[in-house]
Amino acid sequence: MADFWQQVVAGLASGSIYASLALALVLIHRATGVINFAQGEMATFSTYIAWALTTNHGWSYWPAFAVTLLASFAGGVAIHQGIIRPNEKGSVLRVVIVTIGLLLALNGLVTWIWSGEVRAMQSPFPTRTMDIAGVAISIQDIGTIGVVLATVAVLWALFQYTKVGLAMRAAAVNPAEARLVGVRVTWMLSLGWGLAAVLGAISGMLAAPSLFLDPNLMAALLIYAFAAAVLGGIDSPIGAVVGGLTLGVGLNLIGAYVDFVGADLRLPAALAVILVVLLVKPSGIFGKSEVRRV
Amino acid sequence: MSALLALENVEARYGPVQALRGISLEVPEGAVVAVLGANGAGKTTTLRAVSGTVRRTGKIEFGGKSLRGGPEAVARAGIVHVPEGRGTFTELTVTENLKLGAYTRRERNLRADIDRVSQWFPWLPDRANQPAGTLSGGEQQMLAVARALMARPRLLMLDEPSLGLAPMIVREIFRIVRELNEKEGLTVLVVEQDARIALQSASSAYVLEVGKVAVAGSSDELRENESVRRSYLGY
């Protein structure tokens, strides 16, 4: 039983990393109506900034973490204003293709700046385990879960209780109407991209210590995040979090207890989740299919 | 009375289709002015030209100043446009809709304003936390008006408030608009297909025909003019 709970906590830790990246995908999907295929590479770029600050410039972890979040936010806003916005007038497909281009460009840029070598990223949490009711739990796992849950709480409060949060939601659900009440919609969408970049950066910085840092760090994570977002409902922020945690725990338990899956088939299992959800309930667990009076 | 809003020779087009062919009209401060006409006459486009949601040429003056920019800027100037089809944020709650109405204002505590607006629509507080999309059509239209009032607008522009609503509810909405005008001095420009009810509330009206002003005058003049009534108002 102790082993089971250990697997659950480890699953929640990787699940919270998926959740953070999935939430980034959901934010952008709600704001811009597209899947941002570059979300993973944006996160990789951010993680390299943190790595460079701590390793090359001798910063301690948390200041580097904070500066990386600020830089990511600015980067997200800049990408929206400079690259996405000029293409938004076209079809959705056009924006999707732009994000795929961005994926390739950022991947190349990371390799060019920091080389393709595999790097060790420091973790802010000790690698020790602690004993809770007979279960050995990794402090790093607990820290990862804590950081993501705190981020989600802050974001939720921002959207629920602040004027700018309300304006961002209004701009996402009904841009034309939002303009009529005086909301500067484009800037709200840019803010959304900034926040998404911050979420991605958090997932990257939390994932890198155990996965090691290389330019393709986020490639597999993006698939898990897709699966999490689809499972929870691509337009539902709560869905992204619940979907991420469910997926993390589920994959971990399957990997541990179903022999023929093991570690190798985790990624195909995530793809299977995407496929099954899209076939059976395309709106996901928390997504609502459009219902309104006319 | 000076004109709060004045349009001079305003033109607008959707691609190759010219929707407005030189509209000139005036809305005096404190008046209710109606824009009437058949489908496709350019009524909605007239409002959209003012609010900046459609590209237009010609002169639009608001409060003596030239009105420029997109809808965000027009909203900040003090004009609130309630578009046809109940422009509410259906996924947001009633309270959130009301708060968004006051978005352009700096006031942080909106409780007093929500109470003030609720005097006109007493059912609002009971529905405070309900998503706007779950309200009935008439309630959504009233919420749209309530949200507009939250901005404390200098000019309220209503587009077809009667669209798809039962006659009793339409009368109720126009009664409230008239009272807002009489008691709070709110200036209103209302576009309406139902000329009879619009003329009961408006002091003057413009009848549009294929993007031009065909007839204009006080509501009484228009009502009493037999030929105008037959050919333009349809009753």
Report the radius of gyration of chain B as a whole number of Å. Answer: 17 Å
Fraction of residues in β-strands of chain B: 25-35%
Structural class of chain A: mainly alpha
The H/E string of chain A reads HHHHEEHHHHHHH
Most extensive protein-chain contact, per-chain counts:
A-B, 20 and 30 residues
Low-confidence segments of chain A: none
Shape of chain A: globular
The major pleated sheet of chain A works out as:
2 strands, antiparallel
Largest sheet of chain B: 6 strands, mixed
Query: From N to C, what is the helix and strand string of chain B?
Result: EEEHEEHEHHHEHEHEEHH
Q: Which spans of chain B of ≥5 residues are poorly predicted at pLDDT below 50?
A: none
Using the alpha-carbon principal axes, give the shape of chain B.
globular
| Integer average pLDDT of chain B | 90
SS strand fraction of chain A = under 5%
Mean of pLDDT of chain A? 90
Oligomer: heterodimer
Helix content of chain B: 25-40%
* Class of secondary structure makeup of chain B: alpha/beta
Number of strands of chain A: 2
Continuous helix count of chain B: 9
Strand order of the largest sheet of chain B: 6-7-8-3-9-10
Describe the protein.
Chain A is mainly α and 294 residues long. Chain A is 73% helix and 3% strand. Chain A is built from eleven helices and two strands, in the order H-H-H-H-E-E-H-H-H-H-H-H-H. Chain A has helices at residues 2-32, 39-56, 61-84, 92-114, 139-161, 163-173, 175-180, 185-211, 217-232, 237-257, 266-280; strands spanning 129-132, 135-138. Chain A has a two-stranded antiparallel sheet. In chain A, strand 1 (129-132) and strand 2 (135-138) form a beta hairpin. In chain A, helix 1 (2-32) packs antiparallel against helix 8 (185-211) and helix 2 (39-56) packs antiparallel against helix 3 (61-84). The radius of gyration of chain A is 19 Å and the shape is globular. The mean pLDDT of chain A is 90. Chain B is α/β, with parallel strands linked by helices. Helices cover 37% and strands 28% of the residues of chain B. Chain B is built from nine helices and ten strands. Chain B has helices spanning 43-51, 71-77, 94-101, 111-120, 137-150, 167-184, 195-201, 219-224, 226-233, and strands at 3-14, 17-28, 32-37, 56-62, 65-66, 79-82, 155-159, 187-191, 204-209, 212-218. In chain B, a hairpin with a 2-residue loop joins strand 4 (56-62) and strand 5. Chain B is globular and about 50 Å long. Chain B starts with a strand and ends with a helix. The model of chain B has no long low-confidence stretch (mean pLDDT 90).
